[in-house]
Amino acid sequence: DGTIGLVSSVSGPLRVGAFVPLAASRLGFGGSYYRVTEMSGNVAEMVVTVGRSVGRRYQGRHGDGELSPAGNAAGEEVEWWPGARRAARGGYEVLNADGIGTRGGDWTFGIRRLQVSDREDINKPADHRGMRWGGRLVRSVDR
């Protein structure tokens, strides 16, 4: 039960859970095992890809919140992040989207692309902004 594809009256992403019934179970609202919703169909999510060598370099370090004057993630902790390069002022700075792709369909796609397992764009750099792309902010446990 839903509206997908460009023929709908929906003209952009919607609030997470916009169509979830109040008393729905995890299976009833389509959530993952950990009750994460909107796994496909709202926005395509940017992820680190293991399909390219630069993505496989990522070591899971969190960074320290430091930003460069240009507003990019920076500092010694981002050395192994996808797209990181040695900065002229020292340290490292994330300068491009190498090693980043998207997965899951977005609200403009038809049913074929609205699968959590969709990897059609997993190796295409997500290097521009648009209302069809987003991200899921998560943090792993400290090592």
Structure, explained:
- Helix content is 3%, strand content 12%.
- With 143 residues, it is largely without helices or strands.
- The strands form 2 sheets. Strands 4-1-5 form a 3-stranded mixed sheet, with no helix packed on it.
- Strand 2 and strand 3 form a beta hairpin.
- The longest helix has 4 residues.
- It is elongated.
Brief descriptors of the model:
143 residues; little secondary structure; 2 domains; 3-stranded mixed beta sheet; two-stranded antiparallel ribbon; 3% helix; 12% strand; elongated
Strand tally, please?
A: 5
Task: Tell me about the largest β-sheet.
Answer: 3 strands, mixed
Low-confidence stretches: none
Structural class: little secondary structure
Strand order of the largest sheet: 4-1-5
Question: What's the multimeric state?
Answer: single chain
Q: What is the H-and-E element order? A: EHEEEE
Q: What percentage of amino acids are in beta strands?
A: 5-15%
Rounded to the nearest angstrom, the radius of gyration is 17 Å
Number of domains: 2
Termini gap: 42 Å
Shape: elongated
In round numbers, the mean pLDDT is 78
Number of helices: 1
Helix content: under 10%
